[in-house]
Amino acid sequence: MDSILVKGNGPLNGVIPIAGAKNACLALMPATLLSEEPLTLTNAPRLSDIRTMTQLLESLGVEVSALQDGKVITMSSHGLLNPVADYDIVRKMRASNLVLGPLLARLGHAVVSLPGGCAIGARPMDIHIDALTALGAEIELRDGNLHAKTQGGLKGAVHEMRFASVGATENFVMAATLAKGTSVLKNAAREPEIVDLIHCLRRMGAEIEGEGTSTITIQGVDRLNGATHPVVTDRIELGTYMLVPAITGGEIECLGGRINLVGAFCEKLDAAGISVTETERGLKVTRRNDRVKAVDVVTEPFPGFPTDLQAQMMALLCTADGTSVLEEKIFENRFMHAPELMRMGAKIEVQGGHATVTGVEKLRGARVMATDLRASVSLILAALAAEGETVVSRVYHLDRGYERVEEKLSACGAKIERIRSE
Ligand code: EPZ
C-alpha cells in the first residue's frame, strides 16, 4: 500500500485545475443502461472509483472504452445485459447501487448485492427500496442481495422520501424516465451532481423538471437516445483545494471553480477570514490574516455545508484562533480523521455527532493513517501546514477521489511525494 510523504513548506501559491465530479460521474455512467445507443462522457475524472464503476458496467454487459487517458468515456449497452451486480465489485464501492434503478427500468428485473457498510456508517438502502417500490418494483432482500423485479414495467407515481438521499434520488429519477406515466419525487436531494445527471438525461430525451429543487417531476418516455455530456466540475475537490491557501497562507486559483457550487462553504470561509474571488477561469483564494478564526460548522444536504468537506474543514480549524464545534448530521461515524489529526498535535474532543476543536498555533508532522476518502485528504491538508514531516499511509483511499494530488500540490510549491510500496 502506497504512502504519501509531506514536508511542511510554508505558503503555497499557484494554479490548480479541478477535475470532473466523481459523484456526478458515478451516477452518469449507470445512465447508459437506460438506452441502447452510446453515451459519451467528457471531462471525466481519472480515479479508481471510476475504474470500479467501469468494471461493474462491463460485468453487466456494457461495452466501455476510455479515451484521452480516461477523460472521455464512451459506453454502449446495446448488447444482451446481465442483470446481476456482483458482491465482489459492489462491496468495493457503495455507488454500485446506482445500477439498480436503470436495470429495473430497462430489463424489469435486477439483482444487486447490498453494498454493506463502510468506514463512515452503516449506509442502509431503505430509502432506495421505498422509492423504487413506489414505482411498482417488488424488492426482496435474500442472501445479501436485493432481488428486484416489476410485473409489466414501472409505473409513474408520487413519492416523498423520508430523507433527501442523494443516491435514492438518482435511482428514482433514472428509473422514472422509462416508467409509464408521470412521477413526482418530493423531498428530493438538490446536489449539483443530481442537476448534472438530469441535464444528461434530458440530452438523452428524458422529460424532467425541477432539478436542484426538492420536487422533481418526470414524464416517462418509451425510450432514450444516446448523448454526449460533459461531467460537471467536482465541488468537493474544489473545496478541498480552496483550503490549501487557507491553511498554509499564499494564494491559489482553482480552475473551473464557480461560487454557486460551494455557496455555503464560501460563507464559512469568509467568516473564518478567507477571501474567495470568482475570476473568469475559476476561484482565487487567499487568507486575510496570519491565522484563520474559529467557526462552527453543521453539515446538511445541499445547499447546506457539505458533509464531504467536513474532514477537510476540521483540519483547517485545528490551526484556527479559538474553539470551533463541528456537527456531523449526515453520517453517524465521520470523525475518524480526528484521532489521526490529534497525533499531529490537534486538540479535538469528539462526542457523538459533535467534535470540539481548539485551535493550536502549529501542528507537528507525524505518521498517520488514512481511514476513508475525505479523511485522507484532510491529513494531507494538515501536513502541508505542519512543522516537519508527515507520512500518510493507506492512500488508496485518497486515490478513489483525488487524481494526481502530488502533482497538483507540488506545482504550487508543496514538498510532497508518493512512497510506493513493493
Ligand atoms: C452520496 O452518497 C455521495 N456519494 C457521498 O460522497 C456523500 O457523502 C453523500 O451523498 C451525502 O452527500 C456519491 O454520490 C457516490 P445519501 P449517498 O444516500 O448517495 C442515509 C464521498 O466522499 N441513508 O444521501 O450514499 C445514509 O446512511 C462520498 O464522495 C439511509 O439511511 O448518500 C447517510 O447517513 C461519501 N438509507 C445519509 O442517509 C438509504 O437508503 C446520506 O446518504 C440511503 C441513505
Automatic annotation (TrEMBL):
Residues engaged in binding phosphoenolpyruvate: 22-23
Single GO molecular function: UDP-N-acetylglucosamine 1-carboxyvinyltransferase activity
Domain of life according to the entry: Bacteria
Catalyzed chemical reaction(s): phosphoenolpyruvate + UDP-N-acetyl-alpha-D-glucosamine = UDP-N-acetyl-3-O-(1-carboxyvinyl)-alpha-D-glucosamine + phosphate
Residue stretches making up the Enolpyruvate transferase domain: 7-409
Modified residues (2-(S-cysteinyl)pyruvic acid O-phosphothioketal): 118
EC number, UniProt record: 2.5.1.7
Chief localisation class: cytoplasm
Pathway: Cell wall biogenesis; peptidoglycan biosynthesis
Positions that bind UDP-N-acetyl-alpha-D-glucosamine: 94, 308, 330
Alphabetically ordered keywords of this record: Cell cycle, Cell division, Cell shape, Cell wall biogenesis/degradation, Cytoplasm, Peptidoglycan synthesis, Pyruvate, Transferase
Enzyme class, UniProt record, top EC level: transferase
UniProt xrefs under InterPro entries: Enolpyruvate_Tfrase_dom, Enolpyruvate_Tfrase_sf, MurA_subfamily, RNA3'P_cycl/enolpyr_Trfase_a/b, UDP_GlcNAc_COvinyl_MurA
Compartments reported by the entry: Cytoplasm
Residues at the active site: 118 (proton donor)
Function text: Cell wall formation. Adds enolpyruvyl to UDP-N-acetylglucosamine.
Family, per entry: Belongs to the EPSP synthase family. MurA subfamily.
Protein name: UDP-N-acetylglucosamine 1-carboxyvinyltransferase
Protein's organism: Pseudogemmobacter lacusdianii
